[in-house]
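Hey forum,

I'm writing up a methods section and want to include a predicted complex as supplementary material. The small molecule is pyridoxal-5'-phosphate. I've pasted the protein sequence and the SMILES. Can someone with a working setup run it? I'll credit the forum in the acknowledgements.
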Amino acid sequence: MQPFLPFTRPSIDADSIAAVGDVLRSGQLASGPKVQAFEAALAVYLGGNRQVRVMTSATAGLEMALEVAGIGAGDEVIVPAMSFAASANVVARLRATPKFVDIDLYTRNINVEQIRAAMTAKTRAIMPVHFAGLPVDMDGIYGLAKEQGLRVIEDAAHAIGSRFQDKPIGSFGDLVVFSFHPNKNMTSIEGGAISTADPQAAQLFEQYRFHGIKRNIAGEIDVMFPGAKSNLSDIAAQVGIDQLRRLDGFNARRRHLAGRYFEEFAGYSGVVLPARGDSGHSWHMFQVLIDFRARGMTRPAFQKIMHDRGIGIGVHYPSIPSLKYYQELGYRDEDTPVAARVGRETVTLPLFPAMSDEDVVRVCRELRAVLK
Ligand SMILES: Cc1ncc(COP(=O)(O)O)c(C=O)c1O
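Reply by user p_vandermeer:
Happy to help. Structure tokens for the complex are below, copy them as they are.
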């Protein structure tokens, strides 16, 4: 039997492990020079004219981005109905209201044409999610935001290394938030980053992530507001520095493997394939839809059979309005029917840089056999 193939696995090399050893021996473990170096490297990667600040997760970053944008009780934020729950949870945690907009069946991205109908006098921001690494139509989003005076908080958790019209996601735009969770295209174990053009916002992020503390020129501290405690460690930052160096190589490999999936599935009608996008797609995940109802099979049963055949299958994600907390608030899954369908039918196939082309062939062969 061939080794088990998980749906994702980070690639950490020996150099990175050695570099972490050096940080551990240095005695400087919490936020220090490695955090600064990681932020500087990310700023260079994003073209050199942005401020980048890192924190312990994209969730922490999204929450502070919303706060810095002034979002709070009574405000509404446009969120796609298909995303990880964090995209809406951060809005709810600030006592603001997520307004869910449906997605496109193939891109799995927010349907930009439907945003206007979801806007009210209380709408303050749009939160596009570059789903699975495929950039949202940013001309459409920023055009609407400008016209309506809205902030844009890009949930770019899936999109480090993605490009829109050949510009890196995070190299332009309002507040752009990345995730470096181990499942993402690069990792800092846990971690996230915000990219902004505004140095004052960047200073505020430093305060939000560390108790609201500001130092005066003499180095004395003061507390400006009750901030969070979500600063990154130097150990995590060292991992991030090494991963960033390898990111473009990782993403090239992901694009190649995604291309192999399209070849293997050519002419097969058992699954709905995702949109192919262009070379700006970073292929954080490769997801197909399977009509489990029509097949009289449940998704967990499918996952179990594939698992028994040596293949890990993920689910990313149930639609947000279908989740208990949002149901209890009165949201209805039927109001965003495409997201509801994707939420029921989506499965994530293995895709990570260390996979071989033969692994793709094996996944497709097993999937076809199970669905026959
Ligand atoms: C779309 C999206 N937004 C936000 C997050 C939160 O990222 P983190 O785990 O870094 O907080 C995730 C994590 O999977 C995500 O998929």
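Some notes you might quote in the supplement: The chain has a mean pLDDT of 98. The pocket of pyridoxal-5'-phosphate is lined by residues 57-59, 83-84, 86-87, 129, 155, 157-158, 179, 181, 192 (CB under 6 Å).
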